[in-house]
């Protein structure tokens, strides 16, 4: 990738004595900084500052209903949240949704990527259709699923459970939430995987085929190894994305019957409980969890982040 | 051989059909609901037995929806323009210039792409209240730009790297001024990438629910996805299902148009920025 080599070249050049910087080089640096400054400023101002502020808030008792009781209480909020079943139930639900939906999506996404990449007829049609779940507003799709599973109104409810109300029972509600999530995001996974598929040299596949490799052997021995970086990036992105699930749950079950994700309870704590201290504590905990997941991916699997060089991915 | 290709075609055709049906059914279902009459709304039929435009007439007569639609369009367009302009500047620098701190910028955008947005909800809620931008367009535009920027920077850098920049030099050698070289040579080459990025960013802003529901409290800046979830008030609609469906279909139309007309670009945009080994 070109930026990679250029970056390496740049760091190599930096090692050389700085005095040697030509006027043109200095100008290039200044232009680079100038062009990046606005984007960098906005990104840092809207994320770094709030997350630091959030850490500060999480160390206080701060309930908007009783603002006069605001005081510094150290880690007490963390004790409150982490010793609460409510938090751990939501955490478990979020993990369950993340693991199941990402695993299923990986398989379906791989299938879809193969279809989009290799189909000999209707490629445009199939790609256009696949983009619809990607592009559609999540809330809209969630309403469609909700009505489909509403007793009486919905075709799916009448078909599969004419007696019950699947969205009001925990197991079936979670299954529907996971299904909605899979429907919505499989195309995104497939597109990321398709980018990896495009990297597989056709010659290599032909050669393997000539040598008598079966389709499965070609898939596991030739395609998967080449695609490994793409697969890891897709998994990383989707895992972190699935972990912040909110819209689908909000519309489908509103978090009733212990179907809340961590995002749901953090939101409820803020909006319904108006408790900034506890809400911020949850924010920080979610942030830490996501950081740990990303760290595991990067360390364990050596995921190179998209568009970045290896050493960046490992930071 | 001919028989084999026919059977291959049938096989791929079937697979295509599965994908198309799977992708479209939920969309067709909500379209169907939006055209049902109150009497047939709860009959559970996939295709309406009686068709009506009433649901659409109803929502376009309510302020609640029209206002939300304006908010959605305005906020998404402004955020898109700003994010694409800032993203273009940064992506140009990243793909064309050498300067220290470039890696850090790429790293920061990557971190933000993975950032759990809910972690920002509590602090932003309080910060925006203190600044007086809670429940305003600006209050939503700021987080939208922030989370759209990584997407914009990645997609645009990928596009910019494919531009043959030497053409610019060649044009200048042939006597074009810097401005002309940029306008006549580089801009037309860069435009498709910028346009594609704008579509992706717009879809992202159009789609958001979490920020929109947390950082607004009145119709003044509520976007459609949020307004939809508040349509339950029986004061305006006796049974909101038809109205919600009609509103849902309305905000799906732009997405369908983008996908229909720019499928190739969107696929190229999403795949190019995504994976580099």
TrEMBL record, chain B:
PROSITE patterns from the UniProt entry: ABC_TM1
UniProt xrefs under InterPro entries: BP-dep_ABC_trans_perm (IPR050901), MetI-like (IPR000515), MetI-like_sf (IPR035906)
Record key words, sorted: Cell membrane, Membrane, Transmembrane, Transmembrane helix, Transport
Membrane topology: Multi-pass membrane protein
Top-level taxon: Bacteria
Principal location class: membrane
Domain ABC transmembrane type-1: 69-262
Pfam name, any one: BPD_transp_1
Membrane-spanning parts: 12-31, 73-92, 104-125, 137-160, 181-204, 243-262
Localization of this protein: Cell membrane
SUPFAM superfamilies: MetI-like
Family the entry assigns: Belongs to the binding-protein-dependent transport system permease family.
Protein name per Swiss-Prot or TrEMBL: Carbohydrate ABC transporter permease
Origin species: Paractinoplanes aksuensis
């Amino acid at each position: 990738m070109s930026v990679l080599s250029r970056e390496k070249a740049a760091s190599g050049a930096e090692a050389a004595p700085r005095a040697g910087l030509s006027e043109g080089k200095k100008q290039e640096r200044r232009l680079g900084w100038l062009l990046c400054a606005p984007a960098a400023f906005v990104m840092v101002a809207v994320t770094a500052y709030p997350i630091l502020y959030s850490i500060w808030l999480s160390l206080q008792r701060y309930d908007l209903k009783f603002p006069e009781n605001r005081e510094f209480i150290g880690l007490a909020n963390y004790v409150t949240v982490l010793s609460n079943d409510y938090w751990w139930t939501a955490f478990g639900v979020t993990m369950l949704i993340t693991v199941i939906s990402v695993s299923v999506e990986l398989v379906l996404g791989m299938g879809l990527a193969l279809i989009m990449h290799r189909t000999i007829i209707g490629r445009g049609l199939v790609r256009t259709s696949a983009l619809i779940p990607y592009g559609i507003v999540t809330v809209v799709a969630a309403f469609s699923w909700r009505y489909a599973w509403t007793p009486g109104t919905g075709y799916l409810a009448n078909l599969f459970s004419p007696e019950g109300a699947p969205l009001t029972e925990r197991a079936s509600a979670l299954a529907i939430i996971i299904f909605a999530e899979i429907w919505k995001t499989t195309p995104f996974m497939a597109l990321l995987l398709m980018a990896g598929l495009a990297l597989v040299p056709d010659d290599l596949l032909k050669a393997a085929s000539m040598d008598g490799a079966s389709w499965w052997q070609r898939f596991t021995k030739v395609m998967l190894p080449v695609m490994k970086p793409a697969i890891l990036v897709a998994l990383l992105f989707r895992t972190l994305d699935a972990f912040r699930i909110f819209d689908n749950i909000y519309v489908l079950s509103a978090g009733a019957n212990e179907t809340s994700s961590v995002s749901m309870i953090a939101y409820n704590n803020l909006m319904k409980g108006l408790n900034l201290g506890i809400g911020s504590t949850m924010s920080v905990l979610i942030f830490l969890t996501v950081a740990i997941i990303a760290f595991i991916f990067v360390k364990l699997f050596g995921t190179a982040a998209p568009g970045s060089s290896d050493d960046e991915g490992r930071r | 051989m001919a028989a084999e290709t026919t059977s291959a075609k049938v096989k791929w055709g079937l697979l295509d059909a599965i994908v198309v049906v799977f992708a479209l059914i939920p969309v067709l279902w909500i379209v169907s609901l939006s055209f049902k009459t109150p009497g047939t709304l709860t009959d559970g039929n996939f295709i309406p037995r009686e068709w009506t435009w009433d649901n659409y007439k109803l929502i376009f007569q309510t302020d609640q929806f029209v206002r939300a639609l304006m908010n959605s369009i305005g906020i998404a367009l402004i955020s898109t323009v700003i994010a694409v302009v800032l993203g273009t500047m940064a992506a140009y620098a990243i793909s064309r210039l050498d300067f220290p701190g470039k890696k850090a910028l790429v790293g920061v955008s990557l971190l933000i792409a993975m950032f759990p947005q809910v972690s920002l909800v509590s602090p932003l809620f309080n910060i925006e209240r203190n600044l007086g931008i809670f429940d305003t367009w600006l209050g939503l535009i700021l987080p939208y730009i922030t989370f759209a920027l990584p997407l914009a920077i990645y997609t645009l850098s990928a596009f910019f790297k494919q531009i043959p920049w030497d053409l610019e030099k060649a044009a200048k050698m042939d006597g074009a001024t810097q401005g002309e070289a940029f306008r006549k040579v580089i801009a037309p080459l860069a435009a498709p990438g910028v346009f594609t990025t704008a579509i992706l960013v717009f879809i992202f802003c159009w789609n958001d629910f979490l920020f929109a529901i947390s950082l607004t409290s009145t119709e003044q800046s509520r976007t459609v996805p949020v307004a939809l979830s508040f349509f339950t008030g029986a004061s305006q609609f006796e049974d909101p299902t038809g109205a919600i469906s009609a509103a849902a279909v309305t905000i799906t139309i732009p997405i369908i148009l983008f996908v229909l007309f720019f499928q190739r670009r969107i696929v190229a945009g999403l795949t190019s920025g995504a994976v580099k080994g």
